[in-house]
Amino acid sequence: MAKSLGSSTNIIIRIEIDKSKCTFAQVAQTIGESGGDIVAIDVIRSSGTVTLRDLTVNVFDGSVGDRIVGRLNQIEGMKVINVSDQTFLMHLGGKIEMQPKIPIRNRDDLSRVYTPGVARVCMAIHEDPNRAFTLTIKRDTVAVISDGTAVLGLGNIGPRAAMPVMEGKAMLFKQLAGVDAFPICLDTQDPDEIVRTIVAIAPGLGGINLEDISAPRCFDIERRLTEALDIPVFHDDQHGTAVVLLAGILNSLRIVGKKLEDCKVVLCGIGAAGMACTDILISAGAKKVIGVDRQGALVRTTAYENEAWNAYAAKTNPELEEGALADVIQGADIFIGVSGPGVLKRENVEAMAKDPIVFAMANPTPEIDPDEIEEIARIIATGRSDYPNQINNVLCFPGLFRGLLDCRASRVTENMKLAAAYAIAEVVSEDELSELYIIPSVFNDKVVPKVRDAVIDAAYADGVARRRDFRDKK
Ligand SMILES: NC(=O)C1=CN([C@@H]2O[C@H](COP(=O)(O)OP(=O)(O)OC[C@H]3O[C@@H](n4cnc5c(N)ncnc54)[C@H](O)[C@@H]3O)[C@@H](O)[C@H]2O)C=CC1
Ligand SMILES: CC(=O)C(=O)O
Ligand SMILES: [Mg+2]
Question: pLDDT tens for residues 314-359?
Fold first, then answer.
C-alpha cells in the first residue's frame, strides 16, 4: 500500500489500563487497526490492578493520531492520560539559542569584553570598517530572512508561522557549516519596507539568506538588496533549489545516458524556484524547457500580467507548445515540479519519453506520490528526507555561505552557482551512482567542504572575494 504523504511523526500516548477490564493486546490491536505503529513501550508504573505506560507510536499524519486516541478511549478500562507529539516537543521554546564564546569570570574579563575595553575595539572598526570582519560576529554570521509569504508549499502563512522553518535553516547552517544564522521574520509584505529593513540591519552580518518570499516580489527584493549592500544576498528558494536540482539532473543524465541539450524538460510552478531552476538548466546547456503554471504552458505569444513570466516565456518553449501539463508533457525526458501537491498524474509519466526522470520537489507534499510511479519512472526525486534522492536546498546553502564568508565575497555570482552544482554532483562517485542514489545525503560530510571550495574558487575568479587569497595555505 502506498504510504501517506503527510509528515510522518512519533506521538507518545500515556495510557492507564485497568488490568481487570482490558489487556494490552487489545490496545496494541486497536492502534494497529487505526494506522499507527508502536515503536516503543515504557512502563511508568504498575500495580496489582492498574498499569501506566507510555507508548511511542509512529503515525503518518496528525489525523491518524486523533483516530487512535478516539478509538482507545472507547475501550472499557482504558484511559488516555496525555498525548504528546515528538515533533512539537522538539520545538518547545524554539530550536536555537545564543551562547557567549568566552565566559566573563571576573572584573578584568568584564572590562575587556564590555566597557571600557570594548571602546578601543569600536574605534578600531570606526577607523577601518573592514576590521568588522575580524573583530565582530560579521565573519561567521548571516540572517535567514522571510516575510512568511511562500513558506514551503504552505503559502502565505505569515511571519510568526514561518519562524519554525527559519529556525530550522539556522540550525542547519550551524551544524553543517559552522555559520551562525539569525532567523528573522518580518511583519511586513511591502517590498520597499523589506528592503529598507534588511539594509538597516546589515552592518552586523556577513550575508543575507532570503527565504520563502513569494514570486514575483522576491526577484525585485533580491535585486535591490544586491545593489544596495556590499555583502552577498541569496534567495535560497531560487538559487539554492536550482543548484541542487542541477546537481541531481546531471547525475540522472549520467544514468540514462542522455545529454541535457537533447532533453525536453517540463517544469511546473513558475515561481521563485521554477524561474531559477530554468535559468540554471539553460546555463548548463538545456535548449528545450517548457514552463507550466496554473493556466498551462507559458508561451511568448501570450502577454502576461506578471512581467517575470513574459521574460520567462521569451527564453523558453522554443516550439511554442500550448496547453495543459498533460499536453506538453508528451515525450518529455524530464519533469520538474516546484508547484504543489498532486499536480502530476501517473498517466502523465506514462506519456513521457523512455527512462522518465521525475523530480517532484514541492514540500511537504510532492507533485506525485513516488510509490505511484515506482515502476514506470526510471529516476524519482523529491524534496523529502523519507524517500531516496532528496533534492533540497540544504545541500547548497550551508557550504555556499561558508565559502562566501571565508573569502569575504561581496556578492553571489552565476559561476558560483554552477560550480556548487557540479561540486554536489561530484560527491556521488561513479561506483555509487544509481537510480536510488543520484544526490548525496544532507549528512554526507564531503558536501559542505566541496561546495565551499568551489564557491571560493569562483569568487576569486570572478573578482568578488575581498580577503587576500589564502587558498595555497589550506
Ligand atoms: N525541494 C526544495 O529544495 C524546494 C522546494 N520548493 C517547493 O517548491 C514549491 C514552490 O516554491 P516557491 O517557488 O518558493 O513558491 P512560489 O509561490 O514562488 O511559486 C509557486 C508557483 O507554483 C505555481 N503553482 C502552484 N500550484 C500549482 C498547480 N497546481 N499547477 C501549476 N502551478 C502551480 C504557483 O502559481 C506559483 O507560480 C513549494 O512547494 C516549495 O516547498 C521550493 C524551494 C526549495
Ligand atoms: C526547502 C525549502 O526551502 C522550501 O521548500 O521552501
Ligand atoms: Mg524555502
Answer: 999 999 999 999 999 999 999 999 999 999 999 999 999 999 999 9
User: Where in the sequence of the chain do the CATH 3.40.50.10380 domains occur?
Assistant: 120-231
- Percentage of the chain lying above the pLDDT 90 cut: 93
C-alpha of residue 194 to centroid of ligand 3, in Å = 17
Measured CA to CA in angstroms, residue 53 lies from 20, 23, 40, 56, 324 at distances of 16, 13, 10, 10, 54
Q: Does 211 carry a binding-site annotation?
A: yes
Quote the pLDDT of residue 472: 72
363 is in an annotated binding site: yes
Count the neighbouring beta carbons within 10 Å of the beta carbon of residue 259.
11
| Partner residues linked to 25 by β-bridges | none
DSSP track, 47-91:
-SSEEEEEEEEEESSHHHHHHHHHHHTTSTTEEEEEEEEHHHHTT
Taking the centre of ligand 1 as the mean of its atom positions, its distance from the CA of residue 155, in whole angstroms, is 9
The whole-number pLDDT of residue 5 equals 53
For residue 393, the SS3 value is: helix
pLDDT in tens, 83-102: 998 889 999 999 999 999 99
Confirm if 373 and 352 have CB atoms less than 8 A apart.
no
Cell of 103: 565566559
The x, y and z cell numbers of residue 62, run together, are 496528525
Fold of 120-231: Rossmann fold (3.40.50)
Domain topology for 9-89: Alpha-Beta Plaits (3.30.70)
CB-based burial label for 152 (10 Å; 0-12, 13-18, 19+): middle
| Distance of CA 61 from the midpoint of ligand 3 (Å) | 22
Of 152, 90, 177, 110, the residue nearest 404 (C-alpha):
177
CA distance 107 to 4: 59
Pocket test for ligand 1, best of 189, 270, 339 (most atoms within 8 A of CB): 339
Q: What is the DSSP letter of 424?
A: H
User: 3-state DSSP helix/strand/coil percent for the chain, to nearest 5?
Assistant: 45, 20, 40
pTM: 0.91
- 258 burial class (0-12, 13-18, 19+ CB within 10 angstroms)? middle
Q: Kindly write down the DSSP assignment for every residue of 90-155, as one continuous string.
A: TTTT-S-----SS---SHHHHHHHSTTHHHHHHHHHHH-GGGHHHHSGGGGEEEEEE-SSS-TTS-
Tally of residues, the chain: 474
> Interface pTM (ipTM) of the complex?
0.98
At the fourth CATH level, the homologous superfamily of domain 238-474 is NAD(P)-binding Rossmann-like Domain (3.40.50.720)
CA distance 142 to 231: 10
- Write out the catalytic residue numbers: 114, 169
